[in-house]
Amino acid sequence: xxxxRRSAIGVTTxxxxxxxxxxxxxxxxxxxxxxxxxxxxxxxxxxxxxGRGYGDATLVVHVxxxxxxxxxxxxxxxxVGVPLGLLMGTSATAEAVLNPVFMLLRPIPxxxxxxxxxxxxxxGDTAKIMVIFFAAFVPSVINTQAGVRTIERPxxxxxxxxxxxxxxxxxxxVVPGAAPMIFTGLRLSLQASWTTLVAAELVGALAGLxxxxxxxxxxxxxGMILVGMICVAIFGALTTALLGLVExxxxxxVRIKGETA
Amino acid sequence: MTGALDPARRMVLGLAGLVGFFGLWALVAAxxxxxKAFLPGPLEVAERLVTLLHTSFAGGTLPQHLxxxxxxxxxxxxxxxxVGVPLGLLMGRFRLLDxxxxxxFDALRFIAPIAWVPFAALWFGTGFGGPVLIIFSxxxxxxxxxxxxxxxxVDPRYIEAAEMLGTPTHRLILEVLLPAATxxxxxGLRIGAxxxxxxxxGAELIVASTGVGYMMVQAQSGVATATVxxxxxxxxxxxxxxxxxxxxxxxxxHNRLARA
Lengths: 261, 260
Fold this sequence. Notes:
The complex is a heterodimer.
Chain A: H1 3-24, H2 39-50, H3 59-90, H4 92-105, H5 114-121, H6 125-149, H7 153-161, H8 166-203, H9 209-218, H10 222-250
Helix pairs in contact in A: 2-10, 3-4, 3-6, 3-8, 3-9, 5-6, 6-8, 8-9, 8-10, 9-10
Chain B: H1 7-31, H2 42-54, H3 62-93, H4 95-109, H5 117-152, H6 156-164, H7 169-206, H8 212-221, H9 225-259
Helix pairs in contact in B: 2-9, 3-4, 3-5, 3-7, 3-8, 5-7, 7-8, 7-9, 8-9
């Protein structure tokens, strides 16, 4: 089956859907404009958000605020999670001590940390970073640890036999060996960062895309809700693509086979 | 990467880890570094849990809130399974349907389930329907994807043999694709349950007037930190129980398939 046919059908479907959107909404459409916005409403809401702004700030400010928090939360989780995963992967003692605590905290869904984060840190940036941390840190640890386990034994034994110092052993054997799995963890961490940030901003925030969504819901403003959702999707996809680019640049020696998300 | 530890040593170390965790928590809580209202110790949280079993908070006791959360969860989750699994199987069988649905699905997947909250509230209200849509959007993707992958992984020779024998399409799907895809489907159902439960918590934090999530939001605005922590523990525990139940189901199905 050539790829051409598949993407042609895909484009046609999406095109028909947009057409259906034009037809079904509006004055004499099936769906009332109070439930789902017309394309014109959405466009107008988009222009309003870009120009005059909505929720005390323009769309650019909301987007930058959300991007900043996702980036900060993601970096903090990775900087803590990957080394911890390496430690748990290389040291059986560390693994035995930390694993039960990890198993105890892991079943708590990241979003359930939101009320506690707000209690401790209020509605500002720190609370968001804490929530993202609890969401994004887990996939980084687990995948890094699993990645260390996938390294071939002979490589490890050869390094040991040659008396490689511990620092070099970690840098030149463990990290490269675990790298493909580490990146899988990073991708999952990034997705988790977005989901939890949007949720945390919906629960309470002073700016950001979730804040915009929350206000639009309270104002019964469907056009603005759609603008917010489209922005969440676009910037989620963009950051994922950026990470994919970094992965391909870094892992030049790995051919990822049959990769699915 | 040193060899495996012996089980006794492992258990001692594990216990040390847990004791360290709870000890540190109790120590910080008792030290007064953090206000008592903001960090109750583990014992206080346990006491609060026992109290909440029979005293009402935010319109219900803990079991009552859990019951209404579980009710929403079951509705959204069963809906996701009932739509996702058949659609996934059909997409695995019919190329055209696959080509039509896949791009839509890929486009929608970038929207975090929780971002549906405003529309869910607008369309179905904040009581039951809205949260159900959020759970649905969390649980649906793994249900669909795993059924689809399962159906695609069926050995084509079976399908060809069935087609050659003139098996009608519904029997081909029910008697060839479904059994072969079952392990993958069950795995999808398990992942979907986890994600659905998580989404429910989010939905209840934002829009709902009952349920554990709602209890936690109320506790948060009243600075009842112990109650917030009880909510977290209850959500974690129920999530684990759902996972255990589905794992048992998975094991049973695997056994049955292995025997057949």
